[in-house]
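dumping this here before i forget
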Amino acid sequence: VKKYLKRFFNFTNPLKLVVGVFELLSDFTKILSLSLRLFGNILAGEILLLVMAFLAPYFIPLPFMILELLIGFIQAFIFSALSLIFIKSAETRYEL
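structure:
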């Protein structure tokens, strides 16, 4: 953690310090946006299933359940891929 934070805060130049603060903010907003995106997609799918189950309770929701399962697999793949990209970019050292 110390090495990670040290790359953002360079006190040799005030401009590097300001850029470091923005880079740190950028890293946290990536995590927040990825989490909110996943939450929104899961919530929308659940709401769709509930509405379809309420309107036609027997066989109509079945295709939507299968669709929601497929969307869940796609979201898991996208979440994993974006997490891997964000972690890899956090490991990379950029010179300011």
